[in-house]
Records
---
Amino acid sequence: MRLGKGFKKVGEFNKNKRLGKKSGRKQADSSSTEYDGDMRNVSRAPLRDSLKANIEHVRRTTGGSPDVVVRKFVVGRNPGVEAAALFVDGLVDDKNVYDFVLEPLLQSNIPPQKSGKDLLDFIENSLVAVSGVERVSDWSEFFSGLMEGSTMLMLDGVSLALKTGTQGGQFRSIEEPTSQLAVRGPREGFTESLRMNTAMVRRYIRNPYLWQESMVIGEATQTRVSVMYIQGIANDKVVEEVRRRLKRIKADSILESGYIEQFIEDKTFTLFPTVYHTERPDIVAANLLEGRIAIFVDGTPFVLVVPALFIQFFHAVEDYYYRFDIASALRFLRVLIFFLSLVAPSAYVAATTFHQEMIPSALVLSLAAQREAVPFPAFIEVLVMEIAFEILREAGVRLPRQIGQAISIVGALVIGQAAVEAGFVSTSTVIVVSITAIASFATPTVAIATSARIIRFVFIVISSMFGFYGLVIGLLFMTLHLCSLRSFGVPYMSPLAPMIPSNAGDTILRKPIWAWKERPRLISQNNIIRQEPYQRPMPPHRTGDTPPADTGDKSPANTGGTPPTKTMEKTPASSGDDKGENGE
Amino acid sequence: MIGKWRRLVVVLICTAVLPGCWSQNELNDLALVFAIGLDLTEKGEYEMSVQVVNPGNVAGATQRGGGAGGVPYTVISATGDSPMEANLKMSLKLSRILYYGHANLVVIGESLARKGVAHALDALERNSEFRTTSRVVIARGQSAKETLKVLTPIAKVSSNQIQSMLSHSQTLWGHTVEIDVWELFHDIYSTGVNSVVSGINIVGNRADGAKQTNVQSTEPEARLVLDGLGVFKQGKLDYWIPTNGTRGVLWIMNKVRQTNITVAWQGKPEAIGYHIVRTNVSVRPHMKNGKPSIKIRVEALGDILETLVPVNLADADQINRIEKLIEHSIWKELTAAVRNMKERKTDVFGFGEQFERNYPKDWRKLEADWFSVHFPQLDVSVEVNAIIRTAGLRIKPFKRTVELGG
């Protein structure tokens, strides 16, 4: 009987989905024996007086799912009021539910005259010992509370329920992030719990102006999404734009931040990511301090950061933790790596099939000797090897870790050695393809490495037809395209194009931290000055006219990780005065 | 607007398909030419020979490609009324496309050089693949084809060998000159200079030079040797300066980098060896009352490398006297070179060009009979300043040196 009912439900759900909301609502109106509303549109009908009817409603709506626990009890003695606590097993913290919600209700002496609403008031004000207590009057709120992990208290004769914040349950503990590793720097990465993630960031920025806005997106999944920014640094217009784009989403489900990313990115038809995502709270904190906005999505460790700039994808978090000269050198290397992973195979094809004169004589001899026995043109050779490599990589990513090793051995043998010995490909092609492969792994963010992966193939085809001429035109088009992109209104290539000299100190070069005067101008438009100038470390007698006591006063406030509230409220005009004062 | 994307797609497909892949050549379709030889046959036709490298036999690192036993290159030649025709005729003998992008040497046969190289060089200079930075040598007393055939022992491809010989010999010994096609081409059409080109000779058994056995013995049967300087007059090879007379000429041309000078000491000839490590020559033209003159100033810096007689090099006085001797020796060599060139009426130093640059108005009067009148009568003064930098690791002589030397 139950099974049959279940099947019927599924069928009806599908029908509703197909026919749209109208028929769904009609269904809900006509029969109350099945359930109220459909899964995307939980009925907003009010709760009833009768506890029994209410429990029956919950049972019906949840299909009698065993994880929805209904604990009936009696509050007070003679006569006592029938009551029930409802919660979803696994979503609640058991200790909270039993010790701070149920226990006080069962143990305490309740004045006998209280009943109905008075009793509910009394419970709310005097008994329940957890936070987040709220009154709920309709089913929609009731179920969203229940599914969040709250414990819902209902009394017989009252058409209200009491929501108590008992969220909890098991989460993956904080671990080292797997996608953005750093030798130096914090070891913690985001988890699947939204609250844990936001707390991690707040530990970096202990400031009341770190604001958060919460919303629920996904009609079926009811996913919690949190927008975080620093009030006073983030540009209000961008915050408003983020809010607008998020609110516009009328999706059925949001399972990962990638869903959100695709809804809010500026341009769909581009190979370049215009939304940054990260697994590291320190990166999010740093970005917030530059005026960016973070979007947390419940259930995923990947946090979105907007606006994203092209150059940002080449910055590893360690760049900021290493000294500036080393960091700058590493960034140069990374740009080179990206360029290599983009054009190495196509340049090889172009040089060997069109521009043999560009290869040094000794090398051209060696290349020619290797190619003597190879049956395919260089283009086919490179293309086949690149595809073979992509197959290996894809296999390596998907395979369980134990088998992954076997794949890499097979790959190394097959591609590296056997293919050359069998005369399929030349050694030099293998070298070029492997350099490209290693380069694409060395790119600090996966998002940009993936773009390079696709564009690489386009370039190989172009340069096989037009040589370097085609390759250069391809690069030109890519650059034009990059310059045309915007991320939440900020030019994607800034601060390089348009060139903003005062921000160029944190692009390919990274100036010493003390030399950072300004935040990215186009991102945080209302609070540009980041810290006080002239903080270069030097012996005390050379600091100039400033008495030592004065500097002693000022510097700790700024060198500590926390940006002082004072700085945040500064407008560029007032900070200009400040600068002048310091300079003299 | 509807067709915007469709139109774009059509354009893209056209651009991809219609132009094809111009000038696309796989490496293994190319015959890599490393050296070009130009000769004149007895019938008066041009004969062009090219050294086509067989990569499999040159690049040592590969296991594949025809076995290591083969020759590193083949020489292919064809005749024609022009170098271009000869070039195209070579396809009769070759399975691949000749590719001149890596040619780094041009060998001109003496017969052609005597008749004039302007036409042949024009064909090379016009070619878009060929690089005018390729070096030029003249096959002295044999054809260019014969020269290209000689297998050389250390560098597998003889064009590389000749090129290295030219450059190393110029910097280390200062008796040969590295001239590229562009310089020769330019000098031939210049009115104020005669060009010089190093000669190359085959020493030993010429017939065996082309065989693999030539490089299988420690002393090859046939060897390529740089020999003398060919002087061009109006685009034609005029005469040869023998190797022992080339240094003075090259020195004034400021082409000498390092070289060795020996001077007599205490009655012993060639007793002290002076090695020049750095030398610079400045040539200053002067016009006085329409009469041209040239001042040459030579700066030389060097070390004492060997002494056959005991010399106390800690003594500044002795050092000064040795320096004077060296200066005199250099002065003699340079003035002899100038005298020699004046007699031959060939201005290989480019004194004429100096006047053209510095006194363009006066040059117009001199230009017409520069070689016949003004150059032979030119007043050339040479001033030398030689400095001994160190005397090696030994300052005071061993006493026994006297006995050994004696």
Note: DSSP finds 14 helices and 13 strands in chain B.
---
Amino acid sequence: MLFGCIFVPNFPVAAVLRAEPQLRHQPLAILHGKPPLEKILAVNLLAESSGIAPGMTRAQAEICSGLILRPRSTLRETTTHAALLDAAQSFSPLVEDAARDTILLDLTGSESLFGPPQIFAGKIANLLTQFSLEARIALASNPDAALLAARGFPGITVIPPGKEADCLGSLPVEVLFVRTLEDANKNSAHENSLLDILDRWGVRTLRSLAALPEISLSERLGQQGLSLRRLARGLSHRTLALFEPPLHFEEAIELEHPVVLLEPLSFLLNRMLDQLCERMAARARAAQELRLTLELESHSPHNQQSINNPQYFRRTLRLPLPILDAKLFLKLLQLDLNAHPPGAPIVKIFLAADPAPPRPAQGSLFQLPAPEPEKLELTLSRIRGLVGEQQAGSPRLLDTHRDGTFQMQPFEISESATARKTSAQLSPDSSPDRIAPFPMTALRRFRPPVGAGVTLEQGQPVRLICPALNSAAGGQPCQVLWKAGPWRSSGDWWEHDAWARDEWDIALQNETRIALYRLVHDLLDGGWFVEGVYD
Amino acid sequence: MPAITSAAASRRHFAFPSDAEPGGQGTPPQRIGPSTDRLSDPRLAEVVPASRLQSRQPATMAPTGIAELDRSTGGLPRGCLTEIYGPASSGRTSLLLAALASATRRGEFCALVDAGDTFDPPSAADAGVLFQRLLWIRCGKASSKSAQPNLRGNPSARTKNKSYHHLDQALRTLDLLLSSGGYGLIAFDLAGVCLARQVPLTTWFRFRRAVEATPTILLAIEDQPLAGSCSSLLLHLSAGRIEPQASAPVHARLFLGIHVRVQSERSRLQRKPASPAALHTSFFQTSFFQTRTAWAG
């Protein structure tokens, strides 16, 4: 049996340092409580060496020059805890969420995959470093021994089977009563009285506690005493309370000062995307959809109603294929925010990803070359920024007789489109199964149709005034050289946008040549217009 | 025979025909052109021996989907710029749709940069274009960030500005598509764009360089030739005859299609014949094809 424990000391500090790694080499203290009664909750080593200690008031801490003060952020701690769980899940599916800063893992049978325990622990530490977390790792034959070792010893600790008592012996008895962040507010009088009793007996290390006679300890401290002795001897055996973290990837940042410009926002997004991608990579997932939510600053800070009902700006990037590329995501978000700016300063950033299994990278031998999906998405975003949101895509004909009706769809390179499929499989509705034996005469459609003045004789167009078609003739009428029609059609008479029209195919003298046009007479409003040219 | 490409060779009209290292041991290379001693002339330091010049592979041809045209030109060359020009109703768009249908049916992904926003999806569906493999970019709609100068009260200036806007979007889009790669055919429809002649030759040269050594066909549809020597194949289309059914009464007439005359005005895919007579007969090939309307049956 092999169990592991990941313990992040000073968790509130670690959560802040994960979001702001540039503070790693500066004295940092975390404040807790409501102003002006804020107190120091946690400090890093540099702040501790400067004389800052938990429990000090803000005014006391501010005497220290160069000290960085940050308010405690439960948002950051939640995302850091989720990252910790993701890191643990990448090594073992059997995970116990012991506390916000402590994760226990059942690593039995994983040695063949990750190597001997020392190397195994090193791999866990490396992954956590990638997650910007400095954690203590301990491996032992039972979960409680691993937990005590992780809380008591810095760095990586590997306890060989049967040596638990020897290894844990040097730890102070206080390690048995380490209170988690969740228990910080609970009554600790009973624990303090137990510690006092052990102190009066001269029992200050686990070795001393383990050496106490079992029956005498039971007579004085009851079952709790025996339980503490078993823990001190490293003989406690229990099963893990397994926890399966949901596949939910979200990162959040609460900003001290509102962000107005896109550049600093990109800097923050870059860091969040890196962390999000690392978490998803640890769980072998890629992003199918990215959701960015920005909490905007209210216009009137003194208005209580606007504070209680914050404004949110939401953008969603739907990706054609599961992708895991932080740089690409950043570029896409930048282009999207360029096209759709939030409109107000940003105070909080939430970034979530919908996970999906990553697509296999290797295509088939007989697959035709196609644009790379990642590159294509970026190119399409840039093109949409140039020409407009709905101006780039694949057309789809609608099931109507109204002429020229179509809908733009996103251009996606799906597996089915890449594979060599028959035309019937690809487009059962819009295109014929076989390519036409003759090249089809195409219409070049004028958008919008060009209005024209038409002279009729016996109900047929004989002359046309349309300066847009024949600029050389100016406002002079053009003789209709040839015509066919009318082809009458109508529809949607039961709707508000009913249509009824007569179509004529006409030939006109276009400068020195003859060109063929489609002339349309709108029967509802009586107007004439040229819809396009046959080419 | 593969064509020889080298900037140095194009600047100077001579090269070393043998494989021998210039200035090295062995038989001194025989020089063609000026009798200047290369070793003593520092201007010749960058002249590359012919054996080291890159040889361009002959372009592979892809069918246009029109048998008559494929027989005369061999199809559309990959990795090259092909220009198709002609007046309105000369069959340019029909040829474009046939090429798009052929490429999408082969399983290739195609892109159409529509500078004038004149593409008609029903016509394309009739021609057999598979929309799942077609990226259509409609230029002309002002994006939110583009600045629109105030040209109120000056209609011609406004039209020109609109056309310039279309063209600018189209050129930028084409740049992006060419740099992303992976397309079998990229069509650039400039027909009817009045300022298309203002596209500088350097831009066309850039497009040609971007598409070189890729399997992409770059097809430009225009009113008149624009790319000059940058295009490898230049086809001039003109309407030969319209099938008018002039004898039938107006209500019984049908527009059946257009007879199109295609003249290959330039092809860099083959070496020019030596004699002017042969040049006239074999190089400027003319072919005909006929388009049919969807209702012609």
Note: Residues 443-534 of chain A form one domain.
